[in-house]
Protein 1
Amino acid sequence: MLNWNGRDFLRQFLPGVMAHSAGAAVFVADNASTDDSVALLRAQFPTVRVLENGGNLGFCEGYNHALAQLGPAFRYYVLLNSDVEVTPGWLAPQRELLEANPRIAACQPKIRQYSTDPAARQLFEYAGAGGGYLDSLGYPFCRGRLFDTLETDIGQYDDARPVAWATGACLLVRAEAWHALGGLEPAFFAHMEEIDFCWRLQNAGWQVWYQGGSTVFHVGGGTLHKSNPRKTYLNFRNGLALVYLNTHPAELPAVLISRVALDWVAALRLLLQGQTADFWAVLRAHGHFVGRLGYWNIRRRQFPPRLRLHERAGTYTGSLVWAYFARGKRVFEKLGVRS
């Protein structure tokens, strides 16, 4: 678990992790919290091993630095947000999936919304839901969640299947694959880093799966609210970097041009809605993406994109933006995505 000033989440959710994770060693990597998170861990959770990163390294480097310290002792890692409530037996179905198929490098459970309201707990959660997908332009979405439309869990996604990406809120990953790819992309800092990692896994010949036989509940937005301009900046910058790093060379020009154009449409919409700070965040995101093209090119050569759209699992060959806003397709099953 990665922590930054998450004392209250640790107090609330860590007891469940300890109770329902038999056979697993629990580590908390702390990004130089300024609250009393570390003191709380040492006083109330003495069996939890604390890794102090020495600074706020962000989500990506926070995990990279922490997992580099563990060495070869573990076959699997679980990246678990501190604002996740686990359930009895949550870990075993995922671990069994990886043990049954050595080509599966990562998987996620079903992610539902954490709430004290029983009806709200039946809703899929924004970050991960019933498994991650990508459309033809690299826009991420999930079974159970298209944009801000959340489905109710009625058992429609209880299966196990390959997907495009698994959420970083609760990500089980094979240690061999993690280290082969060097972990998460450090330049992302946070947001979309797990999508990039999973896309790189597929390009390297691994598989990414969803395991609907396991369920956890996620608060979401626990560290950065989705309307925060900082998050807007990270999402737009990392969104461009994501497609630039991982799209097949034959498909990249059309995808990148389309993404830039749609980003400008989104920026103008934000401006018209009076969200000036978010508008400027989009512009800064584009400027900083272009300013680091040299770095992105180095990374693209290190992990060359090998798969075309139709060769990747968890892809929708159409445009999610068009299907959702122009054609009114608000739930996953209406998209007609291939299995």
Protein 2
Amino acid sequence: MNIGSIKTFGDLKKAGYEYKTIKEELRSNLLQKLMKKETTFEGIHGYDYTVIPELERAILSKHNINLLGLRGQAKTRLARQMVSMLDEYIPVVSGSEINDDPFRPISRYARELLAEKKDKTPIEWLHRVDRFAEKLATPDVTVADLIGDVDPIKAANLKLTYADDRVIHFGMIPRANRSIFVINELPDLQARIQVALFNILQEGDVQIRGFKLRLPLDIQFIFTANPEDYTNRGNIVTPLKDRIGSQILTHYPDSLEIARTITEQEAAAAISEKKNIYVPELAKDILEQISFEARKSEFIDPKSGVSARLSITAFENLLSTAERRALQNGDDNTTVRLGDFMGIVPAITGKVE
């Protein structure tokens, strides 16, 4: 489909465009990847037989998803990679705040524009990278932030009363219509905000300052949560848990080989900058073993976890320690030595509890 030539709703109809929900998009494109034996989640290691199959099943089932795991387990990265499974472009009604589909308009603005201009309604194209929204749940997040609120400035400019629904300023969730919306650290969200969320998930209506709007939002929700948060800071209210289709448990690498692959991938920039430093295989194994031993240690809080970032930052510090020593000694090339491991201590102390 040549999107450059499609400027109006009439052009879109002639081109044979078919409406799909975002979950149908994800399902359809995932099926194509699976049939072609393509990698569904690039750069994710150690989840081939655990997390990724469960995530694929959840997408095929068109579920909203909760990724539950300790810090540094690639939960957010998994969510962000789902963008690659969206269609490259989708049509939206030009000027719409909430990405209205011309075949299924839900906002008052889009419905009135289509009723007035019909097939001449202008169309814009939205790229998949613009169809991802993310919010970190913190105690100060309000319903106005996520859902919306009455905008007195808009009411004054348009000379409208507060009884008119055009005075509403939509929050992040309605503006993420037809997109992937990620809420990180869900248990930190206040219970009353979570209640507002499950109303959107199930009933498809939005309540803002007395307005009850029927907005069947088309959103793929991805939530992330840390098990520690359930007891220390908050929890997920039962009605919301009931409306999340799949809960998937993430985990740390279960072998040194996988852990090394992750570290080398994430520290690739540091490695390329310091090509004059040779790192023996034994040194790489010792570095990874530190994280494995910390996760088993009675002196480390198991609820807090030992993030994969520990090994990554420690490896970067190890390279920098060897680099500094080489510069001080006037050497062009060097090899990591056992004494260089003292330099990784600052990368560890802030990441274990």
Protein 3
Amino acid sequence: VHVVQNGEIYNHGELRRELEAAGHRFRTRCDTEVLVHLYEEHGDDFARRLRGMFAVAIWDGRGAGRLVLARDRFGIKPLLYRHVDGELAFASELRALPRGEVDLDALEAFLAFNSIPAPLTIFRECRKLPPGHVLAWEAGEVALRRFARPAPVPADEVRGEEDAELAEELRARLRDSVRAHLVSDVPVGVLLSGGIDSSALAALAAEESSEPLRTFSIGFEERSFDELANARLVVERYGTRHRELVLRPDAALLLPALADAFDEPFADSSALPTYLVSRLAAEDVKVALSGEGGDELFGGYYTYAADLLAARAGGLARLARPLVELLPSSTAKASFDYRAKRFVRAAHL
């Protein structure tokens, strides 16, 4: 049995002890070796036991041979494959696979969502392994199976404890997750935007780190887009080893680099600052944590508040649209006129 992995297994120490108790013998202290023994012990169910971010490929040479691919629950690590005429190729980047024809369904999804969701890719013969899935290839045939599906609990199972109790449990869970992510064979940093999510992440990481945390920020000359002042407050409070750049980026010059980095069409404007701060961080660290997903988990986007308001004021907003459309336009980030116009145009839908 052979394995290759892109990622980190945070509970590999616990799994190693269990497997050693079951009779397995290890040659290294590497988290990747745990995957071999875990597969030998549990077969394709090995992925259920993993806590971490990973893209894993296991070749089982016993018998006729079979290949198993697995991707972590949230799809943090990319894993793509191409199954044509009984042959399976896989990679962490789309460019490593033969490209072929454009997938028109993927193009339609891109125009609707500004990105291409799994399992689609921009090329018809290539597919993303969806998050929380295992793929098994054997005798030229492919079978996919889901091993995890993170989702909110049903409405009738929402917990009703006191807010203070739930907040304390949330704080403990966040701290535990950050502590696990700091376990790495290489230096770890934090991409610090100055927003609430990355600032909270940096604060927890600084408290859990045994040495000064490394943080990285990108600022912009356009003041409405710049959050460096908030980032600097976090840096001062927690004494991080900080690097920052203030830029007036030329999007046209960066587009070729962005297209090369993403492999396929991607139209989220956050790609620009993310690319720049990642390039800065890559000069010092190999792993960087970010606050990605915080707004989705905790209702931080304006659209969540607008959705609640639309249920009560959708009809009135439609009547007010002619007046709102007269508001002067601003180039500031998420300006009032921008939010108001978007709201009156769609509140009745």
Protein 4
Amino acid sequence: MSDSVSASSRVRRAYEDFLSGITPQADSVRSIVQDSWARSVKKGVNPGEAVPESDTTSMTASEFAEYRDAHPITAVRPLVQSLMLDDIADSGVVVALTDQAGRLLWVEGASEARDKAAHINFVEGSLWSEEVVGTNAPGLALAVDRSVQIVGPEHFAGPVQEWSCVAAPVHDPSTGHVIGVIDVTGGREVAAPFAMAAVRSVVAAVERELQSRAVDLADPATFAAPGGARLTVLGGTYRWRRDGDAGERTLSRRHAEILLLLQAYPEGLNTEQLAILLAEDGVDPVTVRAEISRLRRDLGTDVVESRPYRLTVDLVSDVSEIRERVAGGGDLSAVIDVLGRGGLLVESSAPG
């Protein structure tokens, strides 16, 4: 019997003993888990039925949408997407962002994974506090204000014990108050030690991002959408300049191609669509995700959103200006002169 199976069996016996009023054997279950079980009992949580209903009593669907959009943790959602979603797209897990009460504001991942999570009502709008569901990673992380990992039978609610989850609280850098939790929920893969390290590193990046803004997190206007940017790809090097930047950035040809494609498809492109548009024979999806990751690193994590990939900035390019001039019946000789300078339209072999 493997160590993980043995540990799971030991925890399950401790759980059954606990519910029967028997004190579990020493070292059979972690103290942080047993303490949470005790609080769950004290709060009257029913271990056989503790799956939350969507929180429709306190706000309507439109009120929830408005509340979610204004919540400070939503401001760092693009960063979380860029650091986590591309890597877990096919792993069967979901990533959730909660508010300070344990309400799920965003649940993201592949549709199959989200559909599976919906069976335990792990959906946007549901409340996963310890007081409502008993021991679970998001609720426990909020209760003890630290990162936690809950594996299978450590959950207090029986219907949730086929799942494992890791969660860590996110703090307002100005006040130190918890504003929510980042959670990863799935199967055995979430029980691995690296899952805890991954979530902690993402939370650290998120809190650094919030700190760098040095703003009032209670003001929704603080997190307005990014401004504009200009992309130049004709007649020499490929250059990017964002409103407010001190200077331009030089881009690789691949990054210039990606930005032009995303400008041409404002509704967004998934990984496979972008791969086909970048090369006649297609590009490996792993390569596409790696290029997007490098692009975000160079230009900012908030420039490109995921699922599908799409621009969050109002981008103007010399190519789009040429198209507008042609569509408007402008002087074609001037257009030909600009195109004659070379640049991406000549050098790129991307079919898109």
